[in-house]
Design goal:
about 140 residues; mainly alpha; two-stranded antiparallel ribbon; about 10% strand; membrane; transmembrane helix; Transmembrane protein; transmembrane
Amino acid sequence: MSLRSIPSIVFALIIYNAVVFVSGGTEVLGNSLFELPMLSGGHWSFKVGDAIILLTLFLLFAELIKSTYTSTSSLVDHGLSMVLFVVCLIEFLLAPLAATSTFFLITVATAIDVIAGFTIGIRVARRDLAIGGMEH
């Protein structure tokens, strides 16, 4: 098993758990990292929870790119993505500090990774079979 087989969204889960469980509460997710004045006169505040969600979106994008490759490590990656989704779902349902919108969105990202990974993997495999069948 190579490092490529590990679902990268696991890093978002680790960062969320490190931030929330080490700080002892979910209040830290609402802490502002920076604030920018907007042309409209309003102020945009970027919070810790927003940063974790942004990281999760980038990691989801990387997972979708990884799912376009067919290899034995991609099969392991799909299986580990399913395990990660189950872990996130169990933590969301059972851990009080995971009952936040930020963690819910991480869980949704893992579900999208599982569904998209299998769907894209099937499409890519069909394309590879079609191309291979045309050569003979």
